[in-house]
Amino acid sequence: xxxxxxxxxxxxxxxxxxxxxxxxxxxxxxxxxxxxxxxxxxxxxxxxxxxxxxxxxxxxxxxxxxxxxxxxxxxxxxxxxxxxxxxxxxxxxxxxxxxxxxxxxxxxxxxxxxxxxxxxxxxxxxxxxxxxxxxxxxxxxxxxxxxxxxxxxxxxxxxxxxxxxxxxxxxxxxxxxxxxxxxxxxxxxxxxxxxxxxxxxxxxxxxxxxxxxxxxxxxxxxxxxxxxxxxxxxxxxxxxxxxxxxxxxxxxxxxxxxxxxxxxxxxxxxxxxxxxxxxxxxxxxxxxxxxxxxxxxxxxxxxxxxxxxxxxxxxxxxxxxxxxxxxxxxxxxxxxxxxxxxxxxxxxxxxxxxxxxxxxxxxxxxxxxxxxxxxxxxxxxxxxxxxxxxxxxxxxxxxxxxxxxxxxxxxxxxxxxxxxxxxxxxxxxxxx
Length: 432
Ligand code: SAH
Ligand code: SF4
Fold this sequence. Notes:
Blueprint: H1 2-15, E1 29-34, H2 39-51, E2 67-71, H3 72-78, H4 81-85, E3 89-93, H5 101-109, E4 114-116, E5 137-141, E6 143-144, H6 155-159, E7 163-164, H7 167-179, E8 184-188, H8 205-213, E9 219-223, H9 232-240, E10 247-249, H10 257-262, H11 269-282, E11 287-294, H12 301-314, E12 318-323, H13 341-364, E13 370-378, E14 385-389, E15 395-399, E16 412-420, E17 424-429
Parallel strand pairs: 1-2, 2-3, 3-4, 5-8, 8-9, 10-11, 11-12, 15-17
Antiparallel strand pairs: 6-7, 13-14, 13-16, 14-15, 16-17
Helix pairs in contact: 9-11, 12-13
The protein binds S-adenosyl-L-homocysteine (SAH) and iron/sulfur cluster.
């Protein structure tokens, strides 16, 4: 969501006549887009902002002083407090006030530092200009905010209550993107499966998938799904919708029912496993990924063993693993029995071993197969190799040959997979 918000900000600044530069030091305006889901990002922001404090603005700048702005979750949470803490920060905006950035910058240019973090806005950021990182791939928000209040999570407090966009509006956006040549759309929301509950007629998420598939888009993905709201209709679409890619991110967080209850996740290990079985019945080769938190307050070795067993049994393509991070203002921040850091770290490392073993096994099943790869550009490590994504979302590296070259970015070609690694595949293009 932050990446998408950043694309909007770049689009708005370009509309104002700004252009992007390579480093913060070269910039007249520096905007920090922030996240406070875990403490580490919080701490990093402070260091980054302070390091700019005594750096003069570039020679030839029309400004006497660089304008530093902070937006996103930390902006929303701390508001004007950030300017008190760091007086060289001149603009603060929140998760719902991206549209206010031009007027806030104007005010700062006139010497008047400004903050706007009002909680609800009538402007969906999707109505703002955008500058997409890649011409062929687009994020498309369908909801903002979250109503779930998982006890560890700050998101509902900094992104506000869940609101859905009208299905017609999203469809129109998708049609426009397809007409522009976009190949892949990723529908975005904190919990896309609860889409539409606040709208007249309560359109379901499965209807949204049908509508976007109908636009002729080549590849459709979505994130994120809460297991408690994943409907049989959406599961069925994985087996029937042409454009819906065989990949699903379904955060489990823990394998212990006791911890899941304490997290307020509202499903059990058993009901989660039933969803996985239904998904694999609908789409046998679906690639699954998940999020896991270790070291939640009160987590015992026995609870952790259940997580470990579940992750091993399911066999994910990818698992995003996090050590629990206490977030002030969330219910879990007051829970007793904090897990000591070295214990959490040890569990984290043991989990990673299982994750990596299973990820490699999952990728090995594709060796010898031909998969359609959407190429993104030359590999960052080796310019003679093109990188792209398979339908399952795996990174695929392919030597440039048989007509495949740097201009192939944004196009889809069949690739025979020759080798599997934990986090990527390699192969040869059949024709380009
Ligand atoms: N709405 C999405 C994303 C939430 S944030 C969802 O529900 O899946 C992404 C991930 O960060 C979460 O799934 C969770 O695993 C992790 N996370 C959130 N708060 C955390 C915390 N306080 N400590 C550690 N990990 C956290
Ligand atoms: Fe946070 Fe839970 Fe909402 Fe995801 S569903 S954003 S983890 S409160």
